[in-house]
Structures are given as structure tokens and as C-alpha cells.
Amino acid sequence: MARVCSVCNKGKMSGNLVSHSNRKTPTFWKANLQKVRIVKENGATEKVYVCARCLKSGKVKRA
Predict the structure, then answer these.
(1) What are the residue ranges spanned by the domains of the chain?
(2) Which CATH architecture fits 13-57?
């Protein structure tokens, strides 16, 4: 199971760390994902990864 948000599909983002001397080192940043139990449309519950932004904005209903 990939570490992406089940609501907005946010995953890891890649880029460069840039030092003071302007050397670039490839790196990536992970999304703030939480494994939560949510209630689906039909009333069933499921454990999925949801990012903190979707939890705060109320896009999912927690069980």
C-alpha cells in the first residue's frame, strides 16, 4: 500500500537541498499522513492513510 492520502492523493515531494555554497543534493519530503479509521458512504469502516490537511478540513468522517 503506497503512502499517499486516500482523499487528495498527496504523496512524497522531491527536490534539492541547496547548501550555502550552492551544491545540490537530491532529497524528498513526505506528506504528514495519519492512519485513521473512516466511515465510508455505505456505513462501512476502513483504515486508510489521510493527510493532516484533509483531517483538519473535515473532508473525511472518522469512525
Answers:
(1) 13-57
(2) Roll (2.30)
- What are the average pLDDT values for consecutive 10-residue runs of the chain, which has 63 residues? 91 97 98 96 95 96 93
Placement of cell 487528495 in the chain: 8
pLDDT at 2: 83
E strands present in the chain: 13-18, 24-29, 33-39, 45-51
Q: What is the pTM of this model?
A: 0.81
**Is the separation of the CB atoms in 40 and 46 below 8 Å?**
yes
Distance of CA 60 to the CA centre of its chain: 13
| Phi-psi sector, 62: left (phi>0), alpha (psi -120 to 50), beta | beta
Please, what sign has the CA dihedral across residues 48, 50, 56, 59? negative
